[in-house]
């Protein structure tokens, strides 16, 4: 070392380098921040201090009293990237109001914004207007670039930030979330090219959900598989702040998450998650993956008769069981024990479901023509006759095979694991013109009257549903219009078939077909199967 490079000189030199390398804060105290988004942004703006927009403002003020950023939430229900391009264009010549009525899009975009945050993509997948294909992703990115350019031109921002879309269903492996992951990958590449900041709102939502599930099996970050609940608002706000470099403010919100979760866990040190293990064959046994979270050294499962543990892997605070199951009750009871703590796990009887897309057969201007949509495969599903032999080669039309699989609902989907609930978001990345079949075999110890109840689940969706019991029509129509009605039917002694066909148009595709006991009876004498009879 040179004799002139003394420790004092070195300290000054290193301090200067550190000062040079230290990034300037992304946000300034007086910034005007405009959020462009969909209903999630609308709810963030309409939620007051507990909506994620209010949480961001409160957390920034808490960290630095000098912060007085102006937050402008421009969120519109149903908006896609393409939809927002139209909103921006129309707002150039006329006022435009979205979900937060206090803000006019025209007036807000005609002003300078220091920071513009865009959070879109949910409705592209939910509607869905987005196909799962490489050219569709590139078309979506091209539209996103168009929107960014327009917002930059209108508002001349210092920063454009792209918030990653939050989960659609709370299952990271659901078909819709797999498509969203591909969208996010493309979005991040585009953000680098367009010199935009990426905000990890999606990752933070998964992080908070993971924290919740370790405490409470039915913890959620959404109220309906899409829109944020209290934990979801905290997760979105924390993700926004993290991406904008406000780590202390983000941490303060995540500390609130931990406090809320301690309250919901009721002191329990035992939790779990359940998932159906995908099987190559639909005529063989069924397996469930049960992941236990625990503070004790060991946990154990108490299984119904005929169920066995195929595999078990124990780690620090986690144990994963793979269970060979025989779910022959409408609701099957598994007990998880750890130390002095016990959790009862309720697993519904599965359905055998099949799907395929044939386009808009039967649909015209939002109205469904049942006769025009009839398919040769409908008869096999209605009666069950010859199904086992026909499954491998069944087609909805030439070149469109029926894809069959076992399905069991859970807390991540519509119906939250209720025995009669079916949410096709757990089955396939469906689009308009999709056909879905479902079958469940029911063995009765005697002839008995039963009541079938039908309802549409979720907050939006356009499906048509036909339901049969032993080939007889139970109901045909919009499942939403069947809500509150009783459909009296009769089970014969021995095996019975409850089956359905559903044609999908747009938005969510979920409904419930529930079996209830007639007055003075019960369902104890029933056994269920999703393996073709």
Essential attributes:
533 residues, alpha+beta, Rossmann fold, Jelly Rolls, 3 domains, 7-stranded antiparallel β-sheet, 5-stranded parallel β-sheet, 27 strands, 29% helix, globular, disordered N terminus
What does this 3D model show about the protein?
- There is one protein chain.
- By secondary structure, the protein is α+β, with helices and mostly antiparallel strands.
- The protein has three domains: 32-262, 3-Layer(aba) Sandwich (Rossmann fold); 274-342; 351-529, Jelly Rolls.
- The chain contains 13 helices and 27 strands.
- The protein has helices spanning 7-21, 39-46, 52-63, 81-90, 105-109, 122-126, 134-155, 175-193, 201-213, 230-243, 247-264, 376-383, 387-390, and strands at residues 32-37, 70-75, 115-119, 159-163, 197-199, 270-276, 286-294, 300-302, 308-315, 318-325, 331-338, 341-348, 351-357, 363-364, 367-368, 395-397, 400-401, 403-407, 421-423, 434-444, 448-456, 461-469, 472-477, 487-491, 494-507, 510-517, 526-529.
- The strands form seven sheets. Strands 13, 18, 20, 22, 23, 25 and 27 form a seven-stranded antiparallel sheet that branches. Strands 2-1-3-4-5 form a five-stranded parallel sheet, sandwiched between helices. Strands 6-7-10-9 form a four-stranded antiparallel sheet, with no helix packed on it.
- β9 and β10 form a beta hairpin.
- α9 crosses α10.
- The protein is globular, with a radius of gyration of 27 Å.
Anisotropy-based shape? globular
**Count of runs of 4 or more consecutive helical residues:** 13
Give me the secondary-structure category.
Answer: alpha+beta
Which percent band covers the strand fraction?
25-35%
What do we call the CATH homologous superfamily of the largest domain?
SGNH hydrolase
The major pleated sheet works out as: 7 strands, antiparallel
CATH class of the largest domain, anyone?
Alpha Beta
Question: Helix content range of the residues, please?
Answer: 25-40%
Total of domains: 3
End-to-end separation: 85 Å
């Amino acid at each position: 070392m040179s004799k002139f490079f003394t420790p004092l000189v070195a300290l000054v030199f290193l301090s200067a380098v550190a000062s040079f390398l230290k990034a300037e804060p992304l946000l300034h105290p007086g910034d005007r921040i405009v959020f462009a988004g969909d209903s999630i942004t609308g709810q963030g703006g309409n939620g007051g201090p507990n909506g994620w927009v209010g949480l961001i403002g409160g957390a920034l003020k808490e960290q630095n009293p000098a912060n007085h950023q102006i937050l402008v939430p421009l969120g519109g229900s149903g908006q896609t990237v393409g939809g927002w391009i139209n909103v921006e264009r129309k707002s150039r010549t006329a006022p435009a109001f979205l979900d937060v009525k206090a803000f006019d899009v025209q007036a807000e975009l005609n002003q300078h914004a220091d920071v513009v945050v865009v959070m879109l993509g949910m409705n592209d997948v939910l509607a869905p207007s987005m196909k799962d294909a490489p050219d569709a992703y590139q078309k979506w990115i091209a539209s996103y670039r168009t929107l960014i350019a327009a917002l930059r031109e209108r508002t001349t921002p210092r920063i454009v930030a792209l918030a990653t879309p939050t989960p659609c269903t709370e299952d990271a492996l659901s078909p819709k979330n797999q498509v969203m992951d591909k969208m996010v990958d493309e979005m991040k590449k585009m953000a680098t090219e367009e010199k935009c900041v990426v905000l990890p709102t999606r990752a933070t939502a998964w992080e908070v959900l993971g924290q919740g599930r370790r405490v409470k099996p039915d913890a959620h970050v959404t109220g309906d598989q899409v829109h944020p609940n209290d934990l979801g608002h905290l997760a979105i706000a924390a993700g926004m702040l993290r991406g904008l470099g406000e780590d202390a403010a983000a941490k303060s919100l995540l500390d609130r998450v931990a406090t809320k979760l301690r309250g919901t866990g009721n002191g329990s040190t035992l939790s779990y998650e359940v998932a159906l293990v995908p099987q190559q064959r639909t005529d063989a046994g069924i397996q469930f993956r049960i992941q236990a979270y625990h503070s004790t050294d060991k946990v154990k499962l108490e299984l119904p008769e005929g169920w066995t543990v195929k595999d078990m892997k124990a780690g620090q605070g986690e144990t994963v069981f793979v269970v060979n199951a025989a779910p022959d009750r409408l609701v099957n009871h598994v007990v998880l024990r750890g130390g002095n703590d016990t959790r009862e796990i309720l697993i519904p009887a599965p359905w055998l479901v099949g799907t395929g897309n044939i386009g808009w057969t039967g649909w015209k201007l939002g109205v469904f023509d049942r006769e025009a949509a009839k398919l040769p495969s409908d008869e096999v599903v209605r009666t069950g006759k010859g199904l086992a032999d026909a499954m491998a080669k069944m087609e909805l039309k030439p070149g469109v095979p029926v894809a069959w699989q076992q399905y069991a609902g859970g807390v991540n989907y519509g119906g939250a694991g209720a025995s009669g609930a079916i949410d096709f978001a757990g089955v396939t990345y469906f689009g308009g013109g999709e056909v879905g079949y479902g079958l469940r075999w029911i063995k009765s110890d005697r002839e008995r009257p039963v009541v079938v109840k039908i309802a549409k689940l979720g907050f939006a969706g356009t499906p048509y549903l036909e339901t049969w019991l032993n080939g007889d029509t139970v109901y045909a129509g919009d499942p939403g219009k069947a809500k509150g009605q009783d459909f009296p039917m009769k089970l014969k002694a021995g095996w019975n078939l409850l089956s359905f066909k559903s044609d999908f148009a747009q938005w969510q595709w979920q409904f419930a077909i529930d079996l209830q006991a007639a007055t003075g009876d019960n369902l104890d004498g029933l056994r269920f199967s999703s393996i073709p009879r």
